[in-house]
Amino acid sequence: FNIPKPTQGETLVGGNLSIAPKTQIATNAQQEQSSSTVHPSDLIAAQGAKQADEVMGEWLAQIEVMLAEAEDLPQFREMMLAAFGDLNPSALANIVANASMSAGLAGRFDIAAEDS
């Protein structure tokens, strides 16, 4: 751009900028990584896992009872097939849908933040 380099002490448009040595830049980057905040996608995943654990816990409790009562694997299979209609897959489907939507929104936010 043919802009001359400023001389020592010369006032610049926008003020004087100091450039940190490369070692200071590396140290700052390491500090930022170690003290970085939790990313929204991690929070979304943790919340979804907690909600799914609650739903899956109910299912597993039913399955454990059936397994304890079954005399053999074919009987357990029949009990599982008979009980499947009582399990509520829509609760888990809602959790997955909400987590997917939240993750999509978090991704859009990240892209918008990078552009600005």
Q: What can you see in these coordinates?
A:
- With 116 residues, this protein is mainly α.
- Helices cover 70% and strands 0% of the residues.
- The longest helix has 30 residues, at 40-69.
- The radius of gyration is 28 Å and the shape is rod-shaped.
- The two termini are 24 Å apart.
Key structural traits:
116 residues; mainly alpha; single chain
Topology diagram in text:
Layout: H1 22-34, H2 40-69, H3 73-83, H4 89-115
Helix pairs in contact: 2-3, 2-4
Précis, in short:
The protein has 116 residues and is mainly α. 70% of the residues lie in helices and 0% in strands.
How confident is the prediction overall: mean pLDDT? 75
Uncertain regions: pLDDT < 50 for 5+ in a row? none
Compressed to H and E, one letter per element, the order equals: HHHH
* Largest sheet geometry: none
How big is the Rg? 28 Å
The termini sit apart by 24 Å
User: How many DSSP E strands?
Assistant: 0
Output the structural class. mainly alpha
Shape: rod-shaped
In helices, the fraction of residues equals: 55-70%
Strand content: under 5%
Q: How many H/I helices?
A: 4
